[in-house]
Amino acid sequence: MSLHRCLFLAFSVFFFVPAPLWSQATRQQADLIVTGGTVVTMDGPRTIYDDGAVVVNADTIVAVGPRRELETKYAATQTIDARGKLVLPGFINGHTHVPMTLFRGLHDDVTLNDWLYKYIFPAEKKNVDEQFVRWGTRLAAAEQIRGGVTTFADMYYFEDAVAEETKAAGMRGVLGETFIDFPAPDNKSEVEMLAYTEKFLRKWQGDPLIHAAVAPNSIYTKSLLLPAGPSVPRPTATPAARISATGATPLRRIQFIRVPRRRFRMPRRWRGIITRPF
Ligand SMILES: [Zn+2]
Question: Are residues 66 and 118 in the same domain?
Fold first, then answer.
């Protein structure tokens, strides 16, 4: 083949390859593009792209921007057409006890104090075990995902089971094992609570979805915690009396009382295993 003919063929290939194939070859490969929706970012200027796109690779959002721009830069194995829809970051549920979805509707329209001490604590004592917690978490995960929630902050018992089910659902959680002043469904003493929590904290260290936490139940159900345990002075009034004496709701009470500093003290050795949430 002559040199001229070679050059002609080379130029032909260069100029006559169909445009989509050419751009396909130059576009970066991604796993997923969500395209065509109104993309609400939570960046500094709170940018909203009316005809936007989100590009995802593995577990990372690699680009967010105008659809036209991103479609020329990226090719993806999966495309979701989001025209007519909002594309926005997942919601965060800041206060949950997810297994309690199984207690929904148990008793409404009473004061928090009555609700807790007359209904919930007795019901928990009778019903809550690890399986209860797993099924309640699964139901709560399904409901939350359906509502656009991707992350939640939880406190309950058997929190390690909550963590396993949360991870299995692909959700993210700041999950706290409860410390409370009476025998709980999982741990019957402060010593057990400490041992369980330390194991729980160590198990989930560095997990990309689960942030294990320590969760003293509340200022009216958890008094001072010391690792030494037995010599800890206890308030003389019962938790219920502590609320009723003031006649105030817990939130109102938090506003006015001075919560002693370092009321809840964690063992020094936990310092290295407690990390900041995501
Ligand atoms: Zn709560």
Answer: no
